[in-house]
Amino acid sequence: MTQTAPTGSDSAESAVVDAEARFASLDPRTGEVVGHHPVHTAEDVRAAVLAARSAAVGWAELGFDGRRARLDAWRKLLVRRLDEFQALISSETGKSADDARTELTLVIDHVHWATRNASRVLGKRRVSPGMLMYNHAASLEYKPLGVVGVIGPWNYPAFTPMGSIAYALAAGNAVVFKPSEFTPGVGEFMARTFGEAAAEHAGVFQVVTGFGETGAALCQAGVDKVAFTGSTPTGKKVMAACAESLTPVLVECGGKDALIVADDADVKAAAAAAVWGGIFNAGQSCAGVERVYVAEPVADEFIELVTKQAAKLRPGGEPNASFGPITMPRQVEVIQAHVQDALDRGGRAVVGGLDSIRPPYVEPIVLVDVPEDSRAVTEETFGPTLVITRVPDADEGVRLANALRYGLGGSVFSRTRGEELARKMHCGMVSVNAVLAFAAMPGLPFGGIGDSGFGRIHGDDGLREFATPQAVTRLRFRALLNPMTYDRGTRTVRHVVRLARLLYGR
Ligand code: NDP
Fold first, then answer.
1. Can you give the pLDDT at residue 15?
2. Spatial distance between the Cα atoms of 235 and 428, rounded to a whole number of angstroms
3. What's the CA gap between 260 and 56, in Å, rounded?
4. Tally of CB atoms within 10 A around 211
5. Residue 185 neighbours by CB under 8 Å, 6+ apart
6. Active site located where (predicted)?
7. What is the tens place of the pLDDT at every residue in 442-456?
8. Distance, CA of 159 to CA of 170 (rounded, Å)
9. Does the structure show a pLDDT above 90 at 286?
10. Above 70 in pLDDT, residue 5?
11. Residue 253 appears among annotated catalytic residues
12. 252 in catalytic set
């Protein structure tokens, strides 16, 4: 007997639960079953968190060096099994082999970086006690939180959650990971390989699979932090659920990233970057280029170059296809609605159009003359589409880029004003004369502002997200003047105030 996935969830319409309480992940290119996975209940999730909590003790005791040895072994195993991992990602998301390989090289780089840098960022260090407390020693250490719940999306099913998983593990936490219902096999592969590389600590990284309900259960299972990556509406639900138990959250949500082309830009490079940034992975990238603001003096040349390049690209399931299908069937309706709205309101398609939408594939669509308040400009489309808008100059482009509540990433093309314009953009990350360069640099924090969420993965800040600072002081000798005791005389306080005036009042 089968039943459909729980109603009211964001689950795929096609998802069914079999008699053994399992659901299937499907290859979006063919509809074939890739694998079957358990639908974990709230009770299962609580059990996984309990098991992770007991495994966390030994993992924390290993210290930075002990954990580094295990995480290095895991990284090397992932490198050895890269082809197998790539094939699994391609079959659950449909993405091309090269897109999946690119994702995996970033995954491996992040595991390496987090492992190498955890001790420097989080390890115990001395802090100056300051002038008034000169008779104390002070130190700061970042301790693990305990168990971190990670909830991930399907578009980068390995790269995106690894930005939390590797950093949380390196910081000394255990992890319970709930992958998207579209990519459960990828999540299981990650936990299985970790278990092979660090057999005696396998319980430190657990995976629970299922639909939105399983993710919701993870938020209420007593974890010490939830690291969520997904859409803004689900991010709000996660935050509300976590509020009940004051569980801290890291929320990495969607974006509507803009690329600004100034009149002094290398127009050829900007056009190539816009096409790749908007269309790779079928446009299903949180920080992909969705909007372009191009300065009028170079707009004709830019639009012509983009049109030529985008028109050549073809989606498909074959190895030499430019990009793959739309992974989540209902996203096709969103893409269609945005294109329809843009065309209805005076926009023009210079590449493709409504008939480019042939599920599960969508060919490149490039739109111009689209009003700023149309859905194609204000909402995340998550398809191989670009909206190009002419602006008098780059400053006006920045103003329009900043007009939305989303603020994940952005890019600026300019020969002379790149960094100046970048600083004016309201978002968490900007690449100058490139697209998405920040995502490939493990040392930089990744995350956004506004509707794109808060908190950071990657870099020093990403490690600190999964640790709690503990400040410790130690009295070294008795001070001549000690105002923090009832034994003090009034002269003591007067002396201390005089000292403070002398030191800080001038
Ligand atoms: P969703 O928000 O639909 O789902 C994200 C995850 O949350 C999935 O594992 C999902 O499970 C789970 N979930 C669903 N409902 C709940 C709930 N009530 N409580 C807890 N967890 C729940 O996002 P998508 O998977 O569709 O991913 C695409 C989105 O992710 C886009 O908006 C994209 O921009 C964003 N994203 C952001 C990134 C960033 O770093 N800022 C990076 C990559 C993507 P299930 O799938 O089983 O429903």
1. 60
2. 17
3. 46
4. 21
5. 25, 34, 35, 37, 88, 91, 92
6. 252, 286
7. 999 999 999 999 999
8. 16
9. yes
10. no
11. no
12. yes
- State CA 160 to chain mean position distance: 5
In the block, tokens 């490939």 appear at 440
Dist. CA 229 → ligand 1 center (Å): 6
**Helix (H) or strand (E) run with residue 282 in it:** none
What domains sit in the chain, N to C, each tagged with a CATH number?
11-253+458-467 (3.40.605.10), 257-443 (3.40.309.10)
- Backbone dihedral region of 257: left (phi > 0), alpha (psi from -120 to 50 degrees) or beta? beta
Integer angstrom CA distances of residue 498 from 212, 361, 474, 494, 502: 61, 75, 25, 6, 6
Q: pLDDT averaged over the chain? A: 95
Mean pLDDT value across residues 259-272:
98
Of all protein residues, whose CA lies closest to atom 38 belonging to ligand 1?
Answer: 286
- Of 10, 327, 330, 333, best ligand 1 pocket probe by most atoms within 8 Å of the beta carbon: 10
- Set 92, 103, 188, 252: catalytic member: 252
Residue with CA at minimum distance from ligand 1 atom 13: 212
Alpha carbons within 13 A on the beta-carbon side of 417: 13
Largest CA distance in the chain: 86
Q: What are phi and psi of 23, to 5 degrees?
A: -125, 160
pTM here is 0.95
For the segment 324-329, the average pLDDT, to the nearest whole number, is 95
Residue nearest to atom 39 of ligand 1 (CA): 252
pLDDT confidence of residue 319: 79
Minimal-distance CA residue to ligand 1 atom 25: 153
Say yes or no to pLDDT of 396 above 70: yes
* In contact, 93 and 327? CB cutoff 8 Å: yes
CA distances from 91 to 104, 335, 440 (A): 14, 22, 24
Ligand 1 within 6 A of CB of 408? yes
Structure token digits, residue 458: 């990657």
Cβ(436) – ligand 1 distance below 6 Å: no
